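Troubleshooting log. The previous run stalled partway through. Resubmitting the same two chains, unchanged.
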Amino acid sequence: MAYTELHARSAFSFLRGASNPEHLAEAAVQRGLTAMALCDRDGVHGAPRFYAKSREMREENKGELRTLVGSELTLEDGTVLPVLVMSRGGYQNLCRMITRAKLRAPKGESRIQWSELEEFHEGLIALTGDTEGPLHLPVWRGERAAADAVVQRLVRAFGPGHVYVELQRHRLPDEERKVEGLCALAEAHGLPILATNGVVYAEAWGRNVHDVFTCLRHYTHLDAAGALLGANAERRVKSPRDMAALFADLPQAIVNTERLAERLDFTLKDLGYRFPDFPVPEGTTMERVLIEQTYRGARNRYGWPTPRVRRQLAKELNLINRLGFAGYFLIVADIVHYARTSDILVQGRGSAANSAVCYALGITAFDPVSSDLLFERFLSEGRTSWPDIDLDLPSGDRREQVIQEVFHRYGRHGAAMTANVITYRGRSAMREIGKVLNFGEDVLKRFSDLFASGDFEHTLELEEQIEKAGIPRAHPRFRPLVQLYHRIYGLPRHLGQHSGGMVICQGRLDQVVPLENASMPGRTVVQWDKDDCEDLGIIKIDLLGLGMMAVLQEAFALSHQRGHGVDLPGISKEDSATFKLMQEADTVGTFQVESRAQMATLPRMRPATFYDVAIEVAIIRPGPIGGGLTHPYLRRRNGKEPVTYLHPDLEPLLKRTLGVPLFQEQMLRIAMIMAGFNSQEVEELRRAISFHRSTERMKKVVVKLRARMSERQVAPDVQEQIVSALSSFALYGFPESHAISFALLAYASCWLKVHRKPEFYCALLNNQPMGFYSPDTLIKDGKRRGVKFRSVCVMRSGVGCTIEKDGAIRLGLNYAKGFNRDKATELVRERGVRPFSSLSDLLLRVRINKAERRLLAQIGALNQLSDHRRAALWGVEALFDEDDLFSQTAALPASANPLAPMNPLERLQADYDGTRVTIGPHPMSFVRADIPHIMRAIDLPHGRDGQDVVIAGAVICRQRPGTAKGNVFISLEDETGIANAMVRSELFEKLRLTITHEPFLEIHGRLQKQEGVISILARDVRSFRAPAPVEPQSHDFH
Amino acid sequence: MKTYAVLFAPDFRLQATMRHVPDLAGRPLALLEIQAAKPRVIEVNDLAAQRAVEPGMTPTQALARCAEVQLLSRNAGHERSAQQTLLHTAETLSPFLESTAPGVVTVDLPAERVFRAEDVAARVIAPLGLLGLEIRVGIAGTPDLALMAARVATPVEIIHDAAAFLASLPLAALEPGENLSGVLKAWGIHTIGQFLALPAAALWERLGPEAVELSTRAQGGRSRPLRLVQPPEFFSEEADLDHPVEMLEPLLFLLRRFLEQIARRLACAYLVAGRLQLVLRFERDEPYQRTFTLPQPTRDVDLLFRMLHTHLENFRSESPITGLELAARPVRPQAQQADLLDRGLRDPHQFAETLARLQALLGSGEVGTPELASSHHPDAFSIRPYNASASAQSRRDDILLGVPWLRFRPPIPARVIMNDAGPAFLYSTRSNGPIREACGPWLLAGNWWEDQHWSREEWDIAMDEGFYRLVQAGEMWFLDGIYA
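Second attempt completed without errors. Output:
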């Protein structure tokens, strides 16, 4: 007998389902189901993955599954009503109904009113639900009149023939009483009965995961949860045969599932999404407008375009218009135009940089024609999905302005951010499972502290990590903990917001996908992530915030104010001083090339051209490192290895990367040359590389690639090398165009560091947090480069950092931690009216509370109004308190200050306490005389390779890259600079807590000097007692 | 002129805890405050301090500094008992005691006596040392000054010139409030001398009455009346045995004698025993301790002796007893009238003795009041200790109980022959024959996360003579009950 499961929840019901939609789909096919409805709670979060999986299984001939759409709706009385979608109209109604409920409720909640069911019922079928359904309690209690009322209400809302009485049997004692009650009710009202299994997990073991989720939902643990837990594992996906046996006495309930499934005509294929048209004047078309704008822009960019440029533009325009993407380009160009006219720095990145049209329209900043970039990486004949244009904007308010403009243009129901699915992984997963298994807080905290970031590869197995956290293997709950961790790993935890992905729609987006409130006010978010959206043909525009864009914009503005204006296009790309900075790896604070790994490569790479910078940016990526490609490139570049090519045919393609494929574009071209891939196949390959989620897709392409290379008699070892490079790219590939876009910013930031030092550091300090280093490290770096910094001062400081006439940077009032921004603004405004004549004048005119007064005095911000910090501290205590109604409103007669000035160490402590930075001496300088055995960072270059040395300093960065086989890189800062050390994985495991928790370290090891790169290979790591209890901020990635 | 002594136990909370884990002496130790939102180290011993473990660190930071550091948790009970020990010992100096703060006892010394450092060391420091508490003692003209002296004493400090003594002391000795302390620290004021050098009027203007109060303390403080306490008296008897005891009789003989003594002392004070504590020390093993809570306070020797006798009847040890201690916690006799409607227990002592006998027979945790557990297991229950004053709990709130049935306890073992449809034939001592109809199986399983996980299949079956519930657990079948 045929059966369709019409009521299933996935893990996208967040703590109410225990299996991914993909897993449910696989299980359904395995059990012989031909259709299944996914009804996630208050949304359709899991529907795209469910649908994509069924499509994938069909394509791979693994089975057919019709994926039906539904949702469990939480009603105003707290009961839960499952509804199924019959048609596109029904789907649109469902989405609008959920959107309305979600947008009026706090984030994460939703309550649909009964009146809304009547309003949006068209195209929907209602089931009466399970133990949370509106019929459960009346039937269970035998309250027939109440049950009748619920049924009548449902029939009134959805109409006759649109309500089914749902029967579930989970082999529980006493459930027959409810089934009998429901059958009697159905008969009395002439409603059809319908069997479902209320699936919440794919396999029986999912019951354990579901129990864990139940505990998390109820904030309890397994030992206390009692009857809240499942009674058995019967809510799994069952075969038609099993279900027929279960309902052998009620065959109609099974038959009706098939009949109802036939009425459900809607799948996600039929979404009805359309990208908005760009408004053009009557009598013309979007295609015409695009051509006009492109050629107008090309004249600005190229002057008189060369025949080659004209040919490229014509080719691109022809393809864009043929594929129907003209509106998309115009809309993106319009957003860019808005940003530019609003004085917001904007730059397109991603594969769009391969397009001359994007360059002409002003979307990107780099000429792809002169660099011979591969347009097919961006758009090709075989491409059905939309091209990908990402816009980099300054992070913060300016980016928000652009996002709000898009909301404004397309309306609250026409635009939204894409979601970001936060999954259970690493220590968060372990912590929650541990809590549910009733492990002590101390053990869980220790696990979290030991394994700070669980998402990188660890050199210890999970079992060993757990043991180290204090749970012995013999512990009876050790095994369940490990098992649950593996089962829960990767399941969705909650829905976040993508950092910048926006979707827009012609008409109502809330008819395509439900919208929810984001945690940020003024933003809404769709229930799907960017991959889901791409899968379903929904166009996303990435408006990404880059801290460095904000820095560049501010540094350009400051340069302009100081009479030596410069802008991004105006920066010379052949500046030898800038290249020298990079070659010396003096890149703290710059974009992309400031990381420890980048700094270790720069002296070997010795970039001397702009294209070298692009390679530098691309080369230190997990992809090329994983593929073992970094070192061959550097060895070849430094003449230590001959330049050879995988195949003579590849020489023209790989010449500029010395025979080593470094970019995605090169990989695509290799496939074209070596395997004869056509544009459609190249597109398949591109998607496989770019689409992070599907390893299946990648495997298929690799099979095809190998087959085609074999046909063309490519040697097996060459095939192997090509496939291996390809697999690495699939994980973290970097397109050349992307590298060039980033290189522009990296180069510009280095140029500013050389030629506009005060502007560069000032802008950096005003746009924290960003990058690898803390403001304190940036100040130390600036001082070493001759920049003067001055402390916060109520008579001089602005709200943010400013540059004084002599080029010194004055720290802003924003660096006084705990001094409210509004107060800072008020202070600066008052000072603008008339400078403060005394402490009492300041405190009479600006309402500053006691804590703020003390703070300002302590950090020296009042020094110009008193003799020294302590005199100011003495002074501010005598003056009135704004929080005290009875305080005096006039200054008290000043008494002589009896306090001694702070000594340097006290000033250091006060600086760190009040601003987290110091412009004074480095903490290490206070103890230098006592540690003659410890080498200063500045002296390391004079040491001998292989020499035993000891270094010490404040930890400013700890990194444990996934590609470094568990080794850890530590940067220590002292008063002379930064010293780098590498700790091998075994030593790290031994001293994990010392390394990850001590603010100052002393490292004993061997000095290594290779090709201008200096580091210490650690033999021992110890804590180092700081001269004062200061805790410098370290940026950690371990 | 009055004189005060302060007994001060540094790192009192850690010391109080360490008394109960003497094995850890010689290891770096850190005491944690685990009640706080984030557990922090609050006190450390010298060894831990030498390894740079400091108060304020998180447990992880402490372990980062010193992997061998042993982390202990605060124990309020240990602190109470250590404080009692301080009070008991301080009583040897004077009966006028104040339990000033945890680890601090202030004694109003008799005016007619002059205490020398040696006297103090012999009377309190040495005895407390034997009891595992290291203390310092300060003697001065005011309680505040005596406390400050105690803080810096090595180990006894007697103050004659208050001003000279105070000037060099750190300000922290005055224990200023958090806010005031922060301000003074920011001002660079670290010693009492520096503080007293500040102009008094200007100080009042800035910091208000709190600073004035601090200033008074900085000048030695005022004499104040102590909040006198009397240490609760335990009536105890103990003995170290010349010849170890191996049999019950001699032990009981000794205990009976102890009880008679204790009862006599209680009678003199018009008190009764509320609790008995028995400690047995052995040649090799750890001492055995047992506390007996009396259902009704008494000093009836026979009754108390019966209780000890019942307990010791089932007591076995590997090594002979070398010492014993019996202590009675005195309370005032109860004058409580029974509730008019409460039937109560005719003889609570008899009842308690019966419970104790049952517990000795069945094991602890096996005697008490059963109550239904929240579980899917049909017969899950837990035992809570009997409490005469607790009202009976109603069963869990099931809306409908279904068809009534009688559960067999224990379930009746059965043999079942199955066919395709389910159980077909039943053999058991209760019912035999073909099964006319079977409904099920109902599947129940739980506690999958622990060793005691369970699963069972239940069937409702119709036999000629009635309806039964049949259960399969593992390979075994049982008749679980009969439907009424």
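Takeaways: DSSP finds 14 helices and 22 strands in chain B. Chain B has a mean pLDDT of 84.
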